[in-house]
TrEMBL record:
Keyword Lipid metabolism appears in the UniProt entry: no
Protein name: Glycine cleavage system H protein
PROSITE patterns: BIOTINYL_LIPOYL, LIPOYL
Keyword Oxidoreductase part of the UniProt annotation: no
GO biological process: glycine decarboxylation via glycine cleavage system; protein lipoylation
Database matches in SUPFAM superfamilies: Single hybrid motif (SSF51230)
Domain of life assignment: Bacteria
């Protein structure tokens, strides 16, 4: 796991740094897509999520819409494809993204219409290249990542 200004950047994921989305290839050829740690930090506590399963999207087009107390916006598609599944955990409680953006907080599963060898030409990066691009971006934005804490109710 790499960390840049408190932001987690897990190894094995691909990042579209400009759009703050991540991609995880799955064995069946589909991919999981989610918001990055910097994206959830900027948005604040997430309140609602909308995803339309079955929708076909082009790169950069809206995969999902998220809303927080201070922001409403799209999650842009890092790859072209068809949305085949929405994460029911996130639909029920989008705030899970604020606590676990790369685990339980994945947003949707996409069936890409491009091959893996085309990912880099679409702006996806991984490993040290992703870490360096995030280092530059986060320093320019003066952003340090924070996670929302679980609400603990006291008696």
């Amino acid at each position: 796991m790499a960390y840049v200004l408190g932001c987690e950047l897990p190894e094995g994921l691909w990042f579209q740094v400009a759009q703050d989305v991540w991609v995880k290839p799955l064995e069946d050829g589909s991919v999981r897509v989610g918001m990055t740690d910097p994206a959830q930090t900027r948005a604040g506590r997430l309140l609602t999520m909308q995803v339309r399963v079955g929708k076909t999207v082009a790169v950069g087009k809206n995969l999902a819409t998220v809303e927080s107390g201070k922001w409403v916006g799209p999650i842009p598609a890092p790859l072209p494809g068809k949305i085949v599944e929405a994460n029911p955990v996130v639909l029920n409680n989008p705030n899970i993204i604020n606590r676990d953006p790369y685990g339980e907080g994945w947003v949707l599963r996409l069936q890409p219409t491009v091959t893996f060898d085309q990912w880099e030409s679409m702006g996806l990066v991984t490993g040290p290249v992703a870490v360096e691009q995030y280092r530059e971006k986060l320093k320019a934005e003066n952003l340090t990542c924070l996670r929302c804490a679980d609400v603990i109710e006291e008696d």
